[in-house]
Amino acid sequence: MRAVVALLLLLFSCRLGWGAIVRGVQPELAAKYEPNADKKWSCLDGSKTIDFDRVNDLYCDCPDGSDEPGTPACSNGLFYCRNRGHEAKVLSTAFVDDGVCDCCDGTDELEGCKNTCIERNAAVREGLKQKVEDYKRALAKRAEYAAGAAEERAQMQSRLGAVDGDIATAEQEVERLAGEKANLQDSAESRKAARVEARREEAAKRKAEAAARKAEQDAKAAEIEAAAAAAGAGADAADAGATEPGPEEGGEGAADAVAEGQQGSHPHQW
Ligand SMILES: [Ca+2]
Ligand SMILES: [Ca+2]
């Protein structure tokens, strides 16, 4: 089997010629897969120089696997699929000639693979198209959300402005009520002071009236006492006249004395 594959590779190389792209080589490395004048070639890591016909001879010569980009001989080699019409691909050389079509252009297998890159690309394009549509819908939804958010933000700002206005009005009302309270307190204190003064004046008035009444009562009492004293003195005098006998008859003499006394107490009429 190995001999058959080597023969096919040889035929493949001969068909392309040495100036052609070596199987499995990445385009940016193609210029490095040219033999020198002695038909020698150096591994890409520079570790060895081998005959150029030992490239892709199904035997791993270079430690970096660079001499076998188109065979599974090296475990660390890399194979490049051009996949024209679709996306290029780099895969491990372990997938080369393993009987499974890994590249859509079928170049990882010497035979048995159809080129499906156009169909696969169409499917990919359809998928991408669907993704683009999904992305557009997402953008539209995002724009819708953004517009809604902007509107909501404007409404919130409006409500915030209204609340600020309410707060300012409430603060003014509080300030007004504080002033009104101060005025009411001043008025209440004034009325209280007036009531106290009125009560004080009323008390003084009552005190003066009581003093006047007392003075009047004292005067009346003195007058009564004086009258009583005077009446007592008169009675004593009368008693004294009644007990002393006259020169002729005691009774008549006394009566006369009283009469005389009474007469003597009044001014003469003539
Ligand atoms: Ca080799
Ligand atoms: Ca394969």
TrEMBL record:
Chain intervals for the UniProt region annotation (Disordered): 178-270
Biased composition (Low complexity): 224-245
Gene Ontology CC terms: glucosidase II complex
Top-rank taxon: Eukaryota
Biased composition, class Basic and acidic residues, residue ranges: 188-223
Stretch forming the signal peptide: 1-19
Pfam families: PRKCSH-like
BP GO terms, sorted: N-glycan processing
InterPro entries: Gtb1-like, LDrepeatLR_classA_rpt, PRKCSH_N
Record carries keyword Heme: no
Keywords annotated in UniProt: Disulfide bond, Signal
Domain Glucosidase II beta subunit N-terminal: from-to ranges: 22-172
Keyword Transmembrane: no
PANTHER family for the chain: GLUCOSIDASE 2 SUBUNIT BETA (PTHR12630:SF1), N-LINKED OLIGOSACCHARIDE PROCESSING (PTHR12630)
Protein name: Glucosidase 2 subunit beta
